[in-house]
Amino acid sequence: MASGPWSKRALDAGADGDAHKRPALGTVVGPPVGSDCEEDDVAGAAGGAAPPPPLPPPLPQQTLVATPRAAAAPPLPLSGAIAPDKENATPAAGSIRGSLEPSASALRASGAVWAREAEMLRASERASEAARSREAALAASELERRSAQLELSRERERTVALTRQRDFLEASESELRAQLRALRTSAADAERETRKALDAARAQAAALRDDVARERAEGRSERSELARQLDAARDEASAARAEADAGRADAAAALAALAAARRAEADARARAQTAEGAQAELEAARRRIARLESLEQREPELRRELEQLQHAARDAASARADADAARARAAHATQLREELADARAKVASLERNAKDVRALELEKTALVEQLAEWRELCTDDSEDGVGGGGGGAPSAAQLADTLRQLRVQVARASEREGALAARLRHEELAASAKEAQAALAHDDAEDWKRRAHDAARAAAVDRQRAAAAEAERDGSRRLLAAYAAADAARAGAGGAGGTATPDLRELQDALVAATARADAAAAELEAARADASAARGAERTALADAAAARAAAERAAELEASTARELEAARRFAIDAGAAGRANGGDGTMGAAGADGTVPKPPSHRVLHLGINPTQRATEAMVESLRERNRALQLRLDALGADGALGADGNAPRPAGAAAAQAAAAAATAAANLEAAQAAASAAEAHADRLKTVFREKIHEFREAVCTLFGYRIDMVDRRYTLRPLGGSRNETLLFNSGADGSLSMLESDWAAQLSPLIGEYLQRGSSIPAFLAAVTLQLFRDGPAHGFATQP
Amino acid sequence: MATAQKTAITLRGSVEIVTEFFGYSVNSILYQRGIYPPETFKKVSKYGLTMLVTTDAGLSDYLEQVLSQLSMWLIDRSVQKLVVVIAGQESGKTLERWVFDVRADKLPDGASVEARPEKELTSEIQAIIRQITASVTFLPLLDEACTFDLLVYTDTDVNVPSAWEESDPKYIAKSEEVKLRSFTTKIHKVDAAVSYLAEDD
After folding, report:
1. What are the extents of the domains in chain B?
2. Beta B164-166 vs B146-154: how paired, if at all?
3. List of chain A residues whose C-beta atoms are within 8 Å of the C-beta of residue B164
4. Coiled-coil intervals in this record (chain A) (predicted)?
5. Class (C level, CATH) for B2-197
6. Cβ-defined contact of B164 to A586 (cutoff 8 Å)
7. Cα(A55)–Cα(B21) distance, rounded to whole angstroms?
8. Smallest Cβ distance to B172: which of A391, A608, A619?
9. How large is the ipTM?
10. Is residue A552 over pLDDT 80?
11. What is the mean pLDDT of chain A?
């Protein structure tokens, strides 16, 4: 608030001074009821109890405007009445005061007026302040109201939300309660059912227990019953056994009685039979006697047959032996035949080996000759001192080593050949001896084969005869056994008819003897059979031996084959040694000379080149140049010798040859220099030609580039430049002349006459040839593709 | 939509490619090693590169002769290697050996296999040519005037014309070898390597 008489401070200062004296104006302005107003003095001045009166309209400020000076001292009335202002009193005001007392009442009155006005002002200010405060309060209250409303609305929303939550919760609670009730109900039902089941189970268990007890009791009773029955059964069984024993005893007695009865019966029958049997026996004896008589008649014949059988057996044995011997000899002959075949094969292979040996010997002689040649070459090379061209040429020492190794291997090969030749001869002799033996054995084998065949046939016949004799012998044995049984039976019957006649005994003895002889013959036949089986075994052994001999022969053949292979390898080695010697480091190495005797691998490739190649030409050129140099030097030498013959004073004749030699040397030198100069000239010409070619190419390239870039083909003739646009006719040319100072000036031409506007603008006025040419280019471009500007390659 | 056409390559086609490669490679080696003056070479465009080919008539004839016989031996599958030997003229010492190993697939006569894309083949050949060009950075300087020879390693049963003869393989006594890249036409595989005389430490 600006300072001034209306300022609150001034008014308060004036008001405060006598506020307690001033009466209430009744127009005090205070803040509205309920508002927080800091102007308590207003309410206090009003007494605080009475409601504030309506606010007077605020006084316009301009009516209270006064200068600060005037504020310090109230304006002097015309009468000079001035209220004392102690606060702002100035010394001048004090002096004025003292001089203006007479008008104090007026001053007091005006002061009162002023005070009243000040109060009014204060009140108005208070009112305004109160209004402002009220407004502020209203605003604040409005704000508060709004905030309260907002709060209220929020509260309502919260309430609504809470209500919804509550409803939701209530609903969920009711659901849960219903679920709980249902669960409780179901639980109760389940419990009831469980109880029922439990009761039922208990009842079942009780029933089962009762059943089990009953069954146990029944079982016990049954067991007891069964035990009783068992005992009863045992008693019955024992009784039955006893009865059975008694019965058996009775049966045995009965059987015994029966047997006795049967025996008695049998005795009786026997007695009856013996009586009949005696008769029958008698008849049988008669028949036997007849048979024995017939046998006796046949005895010589049987003896003869037996002898024959014995002879046959002996013959069979001997034949068997002969057959075995024949078989052995046949096997031996077969073996010999096989050996003969092997020997023949060996002879053939050895003959082949002999041919190879001869070929090897020839090769050996060739190798020896090559060795001699190498020796000569080596000695020549070492004498000439030429190291050989190219990198990797072997030295003489290496060559000598190679030669030594080759000699060693050739010697080994020769030794092997000698050993093979000796073996060949030995094999030949053995083969011839074996051949002779084989021939003899073959004849013997044939002979013995025939005999074995005959013996086998005889043995077969003998076997048949022996089989027949055995059959007859078996029959005789059976007959004798029957007789013996009958005799025994007669003897056992008490001799009722058992008296044998002495003749019968003799016949029996003879029969027994014949049987014994037949047995002996059979034994001999058995022995012969055993011998035959032994012979067969021996034959099998002989065959096995023959197989072993064959295997040995095969091994010998393999050995021969390996020997042949060794020979072949030695032959090949000899050939390779010769080839290696010829190549002599042809593949940059000394070759796997095989110091340990191994056969080196043959080379797998050939290295070829054209005979006439740059290296050879260069070498020839160098040789030629060296020859020329040599010739020149020789001529020079001759010339020097000739000069020396003339002498310095000319009197003593120089040797004619020296002068000539000197001249020739000079001529040769000149010729050489001429050749060198010619060569240099030709090189220079070639260089110049090459440069010309290069320059021409470059110039052509540059002209083409200029033409493409700027659209004009530029030709230059003696400082005159002719420009023709691309695609233009022959008449369309621009001519420029180059002056001595390098400046260019345009010359007249037919086409230039058509371009006069451009000439005037860019050349005459602009003095710019590039601009003129650019303008012409654009004009030609606008004219179309006729000039080739629109279309670029 | 266009589909990529699959081309086939025959033995003759592969031989042509390999022979052409050998021709350009030998020319590159002769130029890069300065065996012949640079002014005797002209530029041609091949394999996407600027190749230098000799204009010397005698040299061209010699190369033509060798390459024509080489192509015949390649058709017979008799070639094992092509070696470019560079030797000093006066000393005769072998200074460098550029070895091109050739391995041929055993394809029946008249048969063909699916050709590789030309781009791939060209890039492989390009790589070898670039390596030949770049080899000047590590190969020792040739102080003396040098000459060269072309050696062909063939099978032992090959038919040798009268103009050809056996040769010494011209090995380098103490050499160092650098393996270069290789390329394949699916019928022939060519491996490249260079051996040079190791400098005494």
Report:
1. 2-197
2. unpaired
3. 608-611
4. 275-416, 504-531, 616-643
5. alpha beta
6. no
7. 119
8. A391
9. 0.91
10. no
11. 71
